[in-house]
Amino acid sequence: MMLHGGELLKAAKDYGIEPFKWLDLSTGINPNGYFIKDLPQSCFHRLPDPSDLNALEAVARESYSVPQGVGLIAAAGSEALIQTLPQIFPTMKVAILSPTFSSHEASWRRYGHDVHLIDSLDDVGDATIVVVVNPNNPDGSVISPKKFRKLAEALKTRGGALILDEAFADCNPEISYVPLHDNGSVIVLRSIGKFYGLAGLRLGFAVGAERFLDRLRDLMGDWAVSGPAIELGRKALQDKEWAEKSLQLLELQSKMHRAVFERLSIQVVGGTLLFNLIEVPDARTLHHELAKRAIWTRRFDYNQNWLRIGLCKSQSDLKQFEELFQDALDTQAVPA
Fold first, then answer.
1. CA pseudo-torsion sign 101, 106, 108, 109
2. Fewer CB atoms inside 10 A, N or C side of the chain?
3. Mean pLDDT for the chain?
């Protein structure tokens, strides 16, 4: 089972190819991430100071356009929040718009909730918790934030909540629910790991009413965010010039990647600026053939025709990717 992207060292061991030779396109993370500048030694040697954390959260509030009166807390990545959220609610009926990022289902089931996977928001029924990834991972589908208002009100009357995972929203900020937040029953998750290419930093945020965030704080404990994450996260979110240039670069890179699939006669069925979702007759075999050529992609156990493929870092990598992808396709086409 392949639960996430990454695990490159395991792939390198399994296929007997040294890690530095791989094109790791499995994670949907910006390959040209935020430049890590010199960090003060103090952020490594002393415990994180509450005033520094407050400064980071203030910058995040501005960056995400959090309305006055709505809460925001930092955490060790949005994954930590995904794992903690089911613990702040009593056992409830949970509807998850699927297929989507698998950690949501796993975490709600782990804590005994009654989980139902739904194909449409019209199928929410009497659920008290609804989870939506927007833009969705892996198909990149987007729901207009205004469409969530009525659902959020219904869940509020049931004592539940709407969980919106916006990990990929930095590439499409106009779809974020955060600026519309009215301090009601919505909890929005944000991450700097994807767009800023800082996945290893483990830094994310939850935006919502303080009655939810207080419970999250209690469960995460003191020093939930490391000193280096506080320092670098604050710098990254403040660097508007970098964000603007990166968005322009990602738009160009995404167009170039899609052109490769067009030349290879491969159907792109979804994605964001950070990844493409392709559909092929036998994704498992193609995933294996690409791995034999040191290209690591993301396949899905629930769909035997999908591969998710992230962006290459450079044009030379993209050229190499196209050549090796064509070779993998040619190998599949040869009768056994």
1. positive
2. C
3. 95
Q: H helices of 168-314, where?
A: 210-220, 227-238, 240-263, 283-292
Mean pLDDT, residues 88-115 taken together: 97
Q: Which residues of 34-69 are buried (b: 16+ CB within 10 A; e: fewer)?
A: beeeeeeeebeeeebeeebbeebbebbbebbebeee
**d(Cα 209, Cα 184) in Å, to the nearest integer?**
6
Other Cβ atoms less than 10 A from the Cβ of 119: the count is 9
User: How many other CB atoms are found less than 10 A from the CB of residue 112?
Assistant: 11
For residue 166, give the amino acid letter.
Answer: E
Among 38, 30, 10, 14, which Cα is nearest to 313's? 30
Is the model's pLDDT at 250 over the cut of 80? Answer: yes
Q: Please state, as a whole number, how many other Cβ atoms lie within 10 Å of the Cβ of residue 272.
A: 26
- The closest of 209, 112, 207, 202 to 165, measured between CA atoms, is 207
0.90 surpassed by pTM: yes
Q: What is the pLDDT of residues 162-198, one digit of tens each?
A: 999 999 999 999 999 999 999 899 999 999 999 999 9
- Tell me the C-alpha distance between 329 and 266, whole Å: 10
pLDDT at site 4:
64
Q: Does the N-terminal peptide bond of residue 99 adopt cis geometry, omega within 30 degrees of 0? A: yes
Our CA angle for 111, 27, 134, nearest 5°, is 60
